[in-house]
What does this fold into?
Amino acid sequence: QSALTQPASVSGSPGQSITISCTGTSSDVGSYNLVSWYQQHPGKAPKLMIYEVSKRPSGVSNRFSGSKSGNTASLTISGLQAEDEADYYCCSYAGSSAVFGGGTKLTVL
Amino acid sequence: EVQLVESGGGLVQPGGSLRLSCAASGFTVSSNYMSWVRQAPGKGLEWVSVIYSGGSTYYADSVKGRFTISRDNSKNTLYLQMNSLRAEDTAVYYCARDGDPGWFDPWGQGTLVTVSS
It folds into this structure.
């Protein structure tokens, strides 16, 4: 399984919105509505932010939203805040396995 | 509170073995899908293995034949037996509950495995 493709970095100013893309194939992202997104701060464990493409776990801000079209999923963060600065990873179920994206470093300017 | 706590990491020589443990609280390991995910220093996340509630197990190609995932229902604990370790296995290893499957929550704090002579 090849890793999903994410941009290495994105940036935005406080209050702005950013979108992180995650491109897979018809064997993973395109076949299942089981895309999830994780936020990871330095030295910390990943935290689930979005699951099943667009669902938010309890306690996650509604500034985070997810979507999918074909083989590409997206994470949008609106109203950027300084605390959003972190690494973000997408992940897709791939039939008895999972595949992650390479990660995107979000910088809040 | 739902929580996972890993242990067992450390320094091991190439070709050596190590067993990681992941103690769960607040939920039952055997009733859930459970996975191991690793992260090499400065790198991204890599899925390693999953055990389904029914007992079926699956592995990433990179560890197949060398790693074994298991659980002890009486201890509510997940394990990862790692044999024939290589330098490229050096990573922080996280255990996580695997929902549905395909998404991971919660995660443990991670345990560092270093393979070096």
About this structure: Chain A touches chain B at residues 1, 3, 32, 34-36, 38, 45-48, 51-52, 57, 89, 91-93, 96-103 (CB under 8 Å). The two ends of chain A are 35 Å apart (CA to CA). Chain A has a mean pLDDT of 97.
